[in-house]
């Protein structure tokens, strides 16, 4: 099914020719809603096809389909509301020094968007997924490069999206689909492609990112690449609920056979009796987890090689050994290591600070807050970072049960500034900004991730207006989110009209607001 260069070119040109057809926001909203309806109507066929290709299971895939269609409808709501256009009008004011001309600003679609489908989400991050939905919401036609692990599911989804386009009066070219490795390279290099969205590995994403930047006219490349998703468990939290934390961690790290981009891959837990209880709880829960299937044998081989190499490092132990569960399956497990080993610059344990795709995590046992800070300072960017705190720590108090006797060793991960300063001050209580141990730890984690969790687990990314799914590199290649309503902003650029005669203004910028858009006029919100 490898697409030729000519086929990629044809798909991109068809998408480029369809740009004007997407200009009407009402049509775009209708397209997104009709696509959701058709996907729901074909749910049984879609789940069957996706399960045959991925072995993710009907339950998981049915839930993913529901998320996908909810997401399409949510973007239809975003389109209809129109706030994403960010309309701003500043009337001329000759009395100002210097005088201000009439300025009217809004956002317009970039053009054709290339979408690179993910392996682990054949729907929600693939052909009908968030990148496609948000690009169409912005008014951008899409050409998707299908993932080789689910080509039939991709074709079925694309056919339904094209049917939705036809039923809403749009050309089929608004949704293109190509297959093959070389097609992916041709796509990002095509001169009519204006932006790209990617979900996948650091290696593959970085290669495409570099290709996008090396073009004669570079384009935005919004990639989600890789994430370790660190967790810090305080001694107070472990003392209060070690068993609950161990069980919750096991469920999170093994969910979907560990194939979630937000799987917690590194957990800092205290030495001592409370940490021992947590480790025993984790051991029991992971031991009772059934073996599962990874998406393909390439990923299975990488997982087996990865855990084998990590387990062989000095001072690394495997209370539950991750590995092969059968000819096609893998068994979950976890590794332990003294946190001091991870704090060593250029040490032999740097591999433990890299994501290992599959059902495994690393439990690093720390002796004091200085070790926590030293490990955090060595971490790359992440999608998420999680804190497990004790009850008193959640209300800003320094609940005395921390291993360092006060937590003074915690520093922010941006190098040099103490977490007290990053938290907003050096004194006071939670009502004044929070300067207890919980606040210091939260400040230390903030530079590392795009989503911070307290007393929860990162697996599960809610589709909501306030969501952010991204983070510092290599979690993402930009500061944008790929989930939630603001994901549409990736595919827009601002344009300002200065002194344009009223008859020549686009409807979005006209004085009487014929489209009834939310906007700011002379600094004041109105509609």
TrEMBL record:
A Pfam family hit: Aldedh
Is ATP-binding a UniProt keyword of this protein?
A: no
Region annotation Disordered: where it falls in the sequence: 499-527
The EC number on file is 1.2.1.26
Gene3D superfamilies, per the entry:
Aldehyde Dehydrogenase, Chain A, domain 1, Aldehyde Dehydrogenase, Chain A, domain 2
**What is the protein's given name?**
2,5-dioxovalerate dehydrogenase
Bias type Basic and acidic residues, positions: 508-527
UniProt keyword annotations, A-Z: Oxidoreductase
Name one molecular function that GO assigns to this entry: 2,5-dioxovalerate dehydrogenase (NADP+) activity
Q: So what does this thing catalyse?
A: 2,5-dioxopentanoate + NAD(+) + H2O = 2-oxoglutarate + NADH + 2 H(+); 2,5-dioxopentanoate + NADP(+) + H2O = 2-oxoglutarate + NADPH + 2 H(+)
Give all residue intervals belonging to the Aldehyde dehydrogenase domain.
Answer: 2-372
InterPro entries assigned to the protein according to its UniProt record, in alphabetical order:
Ald_DH/histidinol_DH, Ald_DH_C, Ald_DH_N, Aldehyde_DH_dom, Aldehyde_DH_Superfamily, ALDH_KGSADH
